[in-house]
Amino acid sequence: MKPPDRVAFCYTVSMKRYAISLLGLLLSLSLLTACDAGFRLNGTSQMTVEINTAFVDPLTSDPDAIVSGDVDITQTGTYTLTYTSTVNGKTKTLERLVEVVDTTAPVITLNGESHQATCAISRYVEDGFRAIDNGDGDVSALVTVVRESSRILYRVSDRSGNQVEVERTFDLTDNQAPILTLNGPDHIEMPKGGRYFEYGVTVNDDCTDPAKLSVKTIGNVNTKTLGEYQITYQVQDDSGHTAQRTRTILVVDKPVTTVYLTFDDGPHTNTRDVLDILKQYNAKATFFVVRRATKYNSYVTRAYNEGHTVALHSNTHNYWDIYASEEAYFEDLFLVQDYVYELTGHRSWILRFPGGSSNTVSDFNPGIMTYLTQEVQRRGFHYFDWSVSTGDGNSANPPQSIINRAIKYIKVGKSNVVLLHDGAGHNETVEALPAILDYLMSINAVLLPITMDTPQSHHHVQN
Ligand code: ZN
Question: In CATH, what is the architecture of 179-252?
């Protein structure tokens, strides 16, 4: 048997019960409506769904209803779904509003630790971050970064105005000890009876200005007694962190080659090149300078600051003037002493006579060198000639000849003062220097700058 029509059935029942009264008529109409809703929405007629999340349509009570309309879950907006049901030739439609919303803020992910320790935020190097939004995708480029005194804030909003803020916090404490670096070698072999040269250390600290840190040097080297000695360097920063380095010095019973490289007649651009090379080899030397054009002054200051000895040669280097009289010589000497003092802040008492103490160019003033060599010492100066001439004073000599002479005349196991030139016209010296230094390293020579403690090396005076 065919089932009765749903709507017709409802109508019949209601008519039987409430056919007569007006109230009954009204009630029957309302029941009729309820019965019409036999085709009804599952779920609510207004739904909200978060952008880029799955939307499942709950459909209607009629599984055969036709659905039209579409919900784009990738775009915010209001979408209408229409359901059409046809029963016994009668068509009914229902609507549902679906709103795709964006209520979720982006997510910021910090690279590196979100809590850091440093003595100042300004020293922190950003580790980076990423911001991903459920609607907008990668919004890293839109993140604003604000550095405050003890934290960094990262903020970003998506197109829907959802904002997020994360922070990287900082422990503003000094957690790092100073860094001590030994100047010169950490192992030194030196001959019994030799003179220990203190290369010192360089100190760096992340929080305290290194210039304000004083390094304590502990220990000493007794070069009269064979054995192993240690010099310990200690430093403490403002936060109480300490650092320590040790240098070992072996006083041995075998001869060590000591070399004092000396450069005359600068400053010049050659001085700059010589300084660059010496730096590569961590070698210290002595510059006997002449007052030159002021554009070269900075090389004198640099030589001093890099631990070389800046000593006195001449103000004019004009033999006829300076050896004309004792007065003329000392006037010239004091002028170059002032020049060095102006550029280094250090008054030097170490000199080399122009032409050396053995020069004969001063013969026009008989006995002047005999007098001056005594008088400079009486006045507190130390003067240095040389034991090795590389021949570089003659610019006709090619670099290889300078190298060969250096290797031939430097005496292994002895103390050597080597004459070189860094003034104008001595490019060959610059070219020869790396090979000379390579050789000196190969024989384990100790390269030292001349100081007031260095044994003086004097020629035989000839005038
Ligand atoms: Zn000279």
Answer: Sandwich (2.60)
